[in-house]
Structure formats: C-alpha cells, structure tokens
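Limitations
The structure tokens in this dataset are predictions for the assembled complex, not deposited experimental models. Users should treat interface geometry with appropriate caution, especially where small molecules or nucleic acid strands are included. An illustrative entry is reproduced here so readers can see what is and is not provided.
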Amino acid sequence: MSTVVFFIFAILSIAAAWGVVTSKNIVHSALYLALSFSGVAVLYILMNADFLAAVQLLIYTAAVSLLVIFAVMLTLRGDICQSNPENRSWLAGALISASVFVVIGLVILTNADWRVLATPWTSGGSAEDLSLLLLTQYMIPFEAAAVLLTVALVGAVILAKGVNESK
Amino acid sequence: MSLGDFSVGLSTYLLVGAMLFCIGLYGVFAKRNIIATLMSIELMLNAVNINFVAFNRFIWNEKIDIHYVLTGHVAALFVIVVAAAEVAVGLALIITIYRNRQSTNVDELNWLKW
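Predicted assembly:
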C-alpha cells in the first residue's frame, strides 16, 4: 500500500518539477512548483516526518509559491505565453544535468550500505520531539536562524521598497 | 519482480531526490527568466531535504544515542529556514533589478562586463 502511495506521489512531484522547467508560461511554472512541493510533503509523511510535512506545506507550498507568484505579477511585461523561454545554452545544461544524474544514480545503486529497507520507526518526528532537540542541543543554531530570518526579511523590505523613495 | 514485491528502500528515495536535483540543475542552466532560475534553486534545495530525511529514516538503529535520532529532521528544518530567507531576499533583488532595467532576463544582466 505504502509502495503504491510512494510511487504515485514521487512520480507526481517529479512530473511537476519537469513542468516547472519546461513550461513556457511562468505562472504555470509557479503553480507546478506548488504541486511538486505538495508531492514531496507526502513523501515526508511516508518517512514518518509529520512535522516536516506540515512545515513543507505551510512554508513551501503556501508562502514560497505565493511570493514567487507575487514577484511574477510585479515584473511581468509582454506576452505571458512566452514569458519563460530557454536561453542559448539549454542543450549544454541538459547534457550536464543528465550526466550528473547518471553519476549520482550509479553511486546510489552500487553502494551496498544504502540498500536498506525500512525498520519499524519508534522515535517520533512530531513537533514535541523536534522542539526538545531544537531548544537543547541545537539552541545556538536555532537562535542564529531566528536572527537570519529577521535580518533577511528586513533587508528584503528595504531592497524592494527602495532607499531613495523613502527620503 | 512485481510491484507488490518491490519495497521502497533508502536508494529509491535517494533516486527521487537525485532526479529532482538534476531537473533543478537543468532549470538553473537553461532558463532565461531570473524568477525561473530562483524556482529551480528551490527545487534543488527541496531535493536535498528529501535526502536528509531519508538518511535519518533509514540509517537509524537503537545503538545511536537517542538525542541524535532526529538530527536529519533538524538539518532539513534549517535548510527550509535558509531557503525562505533566500527566496525573500532574491525576489526583492529581482524587483529592484526590474525597476532599474525593465527586464528579468539573465542574459541582459551584464553590468560588470565591458
């Protein structure tokens, strides 16, 4: 049962990612991006990472996709059906990424240490377990992440607003 | 081997992550719109998150200290935080570039070239 669910959502997220990079309309690309993130959230649930699946849906599917769509709407000009074309070196990019995929795939398939199946999972993955870890062992990186988010969002507001107009 | 016998292991998840990563890599190389490049970077970060969670799920046993059991989840959480900060700053930069240049084409961002 979980195998069937895995394949449905893995294929869904990969096909949506393919749609992101091949769609000619950039609004469609952004919507495909949200679909791909949702498929990955289901994969997290299959790996017993409940809290991360919720975070994925809230931050990636909702917030990041919304920000991307806002940026698309603010910067769009000309014909929307031709808003997302390939550049001249797309063939070289395709060759490079295909060969990277072949190398990574060979490494994964030939490594015997990674040929493991799931053992029963007993150690949680809920918000409670993660918060215990975040507030004891990883407290300094947690606070640093909070500072990083504050600085980045204030910087984003200043950048998008423009310094000259505010004077 | 039918589909029912085939059980999903670590390498299957890693292959899904590798495939998403390489699609994102192709997008970074091939797209002309700077917002599409940013979306491809998000895809690549997401693929790395799948790898973190998959290793945490499968390479785990009772011998490991209980305090380190969810380290992969914590790493994935920090990646999500940094990705959110990155997309906010990146989109603000894109809006600023658009305001100055009336363009979001990466081929035209050649201020440093003469």
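Some entries come with short summary sentences. For this one: Residues 33-106 of chain B form one domain.
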